[in-house]
Design goal:
single chain; 7 strands; 25% strand; alpha/beta; Rossmann fold; 215 residues
Length: 215
């Protein structure tokens, strides 16, 4: 088990509780995503956490494959789906770079609240491009920690940066702006079809990109 996996395992039991203060952003993001999931059959939820988004959006699509590097997060997600009697979502511990995922096999890929934590966002976007069918959609929401923040959140982010620098939090927490995410989409050969800046103590950026042909 690597350090990142162990960190997310240790965070799993309290994860939903810590995210409650950002519920407006989560709820709005899921509402926005629903508009783009109509008639999308096979969806990958990358970095699914405890499965809330996959469960909430399960009625919009034929099937969701939801993955996370944390086995503990996946355990909680499976319990959540079973309690709600949701049968079209499969949860598995894994990573988007796993070889079992074939080129052009998904109609849409969700990446909610995780692009600021991956080691190489450009590589992730390239992999998403490979896995999407022609004109498939990547639907993301990402905390923008260089945009508007409340005073309390600003202090908490500074503490997180210190903990990251000394290795207590073994996850790269990037301070992005919405423009950085626009660039990430464009450089990854995605055409932005929808976007919205959201705020609830911290800024988040909801953005949808359509797979374009590589130039």
């Amino acid at each position: 088990m690597d350090k990142s996996e162990a960190f997310w395992d240790s965070s799993a039991d309290n994860y939903d509780k810590t995210e409650e203060r950002f519920e407006y952003i989560h709820r709005k993001s899921r509402k926005n995503a629903r508009k783009h999931l109509a008639n999308r059959e096979t969806v990958l939820d990358y970095g699914c956490g405890t499965g809330t988004t996959a469960c909430e959006l399960s009625n919009e699509v034929k099937q969701i494959h939801a993955i996370d590097i944390s086995s503990k997060m996946i355990e909680l997600a499976k319990e959540k789906a079973a309690a709600a009697n949701i049968g079209n979502v499969s949860f598995a511990q894994g990573d988007i770079f796993d070889e079992e995922y074939k080129f052009e096999s998904f109609d849409a890929i969700l990446a909610f609240n995780m692009l600021h934590t991956v080691p190489d966002p450009q590589a992730v976007m390239q992999r998403i491009y490979e896995l999407l069918k022609p004109e498939g959609l990547v639907i993301t929401v990402t905390p923008c920690l260089r945009d508007k923040l409340s005073f309390l959140i600003s202090l908490q982010i500074k503490l997180v940066q210190v903990l990251c620098s000394i290795g207590v939090i073994p996850v790269p927490i990037r301070r992005l702006k919405s423009n950085d995410l626009d660039d990430l989409m464009g450089n990854g050969n995605f055409q932005i079809t929808d976007s919205e800046k959201l705020f609830a103590g911290a800024s988040s950026y909801f953005v949808v990109g359509k797979k374009m042909r590589e130039s």
